[in-house]
Amino acid sequence: MSALDKPTFERIEAYVLGRLSADERIAFEQRLVTDAALRAEVELERENIMAIELGGLQRVLEQVRGEQVIDQERGGSWISYLKYAAVVAVLFGAALWFIARPNANERVYAAHFVPDPGLPVAMSASDDHAFHDAMVAYKLGDHDEAITKWSALLKEKPSSDTLRYYIGCAELNAGRSDRAVAMLMSVADRSGSAFAAKARWYAFLALVRNGDVAAARAVPFAEDHPYAIKAKAVIAELE
Amino acid sequence: MLRFALPVQAKADITAPPAWVSGLQRNDPKTVRLLYKEHFTAVKHYVLKNSGTSSDAEDIFQEALTVLWLKVKEGSVQETSEPGAFLFRVAKYKWLDVVRSAAHKHMRVLHDDRQTDVRAEVQDDTEEKLARLREVYAKLDDKCRQVLDQFYFERKDLATIAAGMGVEEESIRTIKYRCMMKLRASRKTIAGDEYMDEA
To answer: Which end of chain B lies in a sparser environment, N or C, as judged by fewer CB atoms within 10 Å?
Structure first.
């Protein structure tokens, strides 16, 4: 077997990893047509690289599995402690709840708030990977990371209702209802937006949570829209 | 509920792969984590219903996810297909194989509607190829794995790897080359080719 010099190895590597320019790739592929030894080297290097990637994938899979085990163990330890500490926990919990119980607005908010699940990343197709990276973070509960990434995109597309809506949702999920209101209301006013109705609903809930019932009442729901009916029920609960 | 809306007002590229495909193509751990989070439960439910344990379900799901990853890498996965459906089909197929093995003949199987298309999906040369790739990876020593994993799997550039390991960029480049040549030499030897020398 002849040796493979470093420049040739790196040329093949760049081809396999898709790092050649269009012209370089075309020239390389023309060589491949007539050079059987080069074709064999490409296939061997491609498979060796894939083997290394597979090793990395197994490592990540084991990490994810380990994270699940830790979660389960944490759950299990609570069960064993509950056996011995149930009475104390109940009494302590009741006292704590009484002292720090949420106010009426927060209770009503919690009863009606269901976080937006986000767009179905797995099935979506788009050339905007940055958006979907942020959506992945959002769905994993990394709201600050999602906000950071979407905010960067918003600077390029300041009028995007999609970005504004999901930044608002992420702020709300992160517990920052003040910021959520500002972002969501900027979408709620756009009658042509597919997100307008949902933005009104979440802005309404954020205002309820903030205790600003007057502003919540002023959210412009379309008459007889399901969200308008739900909003009336929420106001009735508060009264 | 709105199923899909373009993220920004930019024009969509309908030829671009779905996010989960591009995520697996670039070995994105978040994509792996998300696929795990969204689709493991269905597989676990099926395995538990069919005499398996949670640990069995984890094993089977990891194998199914590895098959999906390989199909994406080879460009042979249907990009319009739902990854959850694919993972479930493959996991189910694999679990039925386990159940049918001699060690598990006592198990009771509630559902067995394996179809030939699933067999085709899993029973091509995928298993053989995965075994071969694992064998190749096993030949690498820890130092090589440390460098090659960062470069090829994590897609870090040489400068970043060098900075993390406290060495010169050129050293990493040389280590990478030598490790890959060791791998090449071992595989050529296995293939019956006469190995002469390493560059």
So the answer is: N
Same domain, B158 and B90: no
- Taking the CA atoms of A196, A198, A203 and A208 in sequence, report the sign of the dihedral they define: positive
Q: Which residues, other chains included, contact A143 with Cβ-Cβ below 8 Å and sequence gap of 6+?
A: A137, A170, A171, A173, A174
Rg of chain B, C-alpha, whole Å: 21
Structure tokens at A65: 């599995």
pLDDT for B110 equals 56
| Boundary residue ending a domain (B97, B125, B153) | B125
Cα(B78)–Cα(A208) distance, integer angstroms: 46
Say yes or no: A155 contacts chain B, CB-CB below 8 A: no
Do B84 and B157 fall into the same domain? no
Q: What ipTM goes with this model? A: 0.82
B97 and B184 part of one domain: no
- C-beta atoms of A121 and B70 within 8 A: no
Contact map slice: A 66-105 vs B, CB within 8 A: 68
Q: Which residues contact A9 (CB under 8 A, 6 or more apart)?
A: A45, B177, B180, B181, B199
Beta bridge partners of B18: A125
Domain enclosing residue B154, as ranges: 139-190
Q: B119 and B181: one domain?
A: no
Say whether pLDDT at A71 is over 90.
no
How far apart (Å, rounded) are the C-alpha atoms in residues B74 and B68?
10
| Rounded alpha-carbon distances, angstroms, from residue A116 to A36, A157, A167, A169, B7 | 55, 22, 11, 7, 15
> Token match 């756009």: residue?
A190
* Of A9, A119, A127, Cβ closest to residue B180: A9
Cβ within 8 Å, pair B8-A195 = no
**A45/B140 touch (CB, cutoff 8 Å), yes or no:** no
| Average pLDDT of the residues in B54-60 | 94
d(CA A200, CA A189) in angstroms, rounded, equals 8
The mean per-residue pLDDT over the stretch A72-76 comes to 57
Q: Do A131 and B152 touch (CB under 8 A)?
A: no
Of A129, A137, A139, the CB nearest to B22: A129
Query: Which residues of chain A make contact with B179, given a CB cutoff of 8 A?
Result: none
Please give the domain boundaries of chain A with CATH numbers for all domains. 1-101 (no CATH), 107-238 (1.25.40.10)
Task: Give the pLDDT confidence score for residue B36 in this predicted structure.
Answer: 93
Q: With pLDDT > 70 as the criterion, what percentage of chain A qualifies?
A: 84
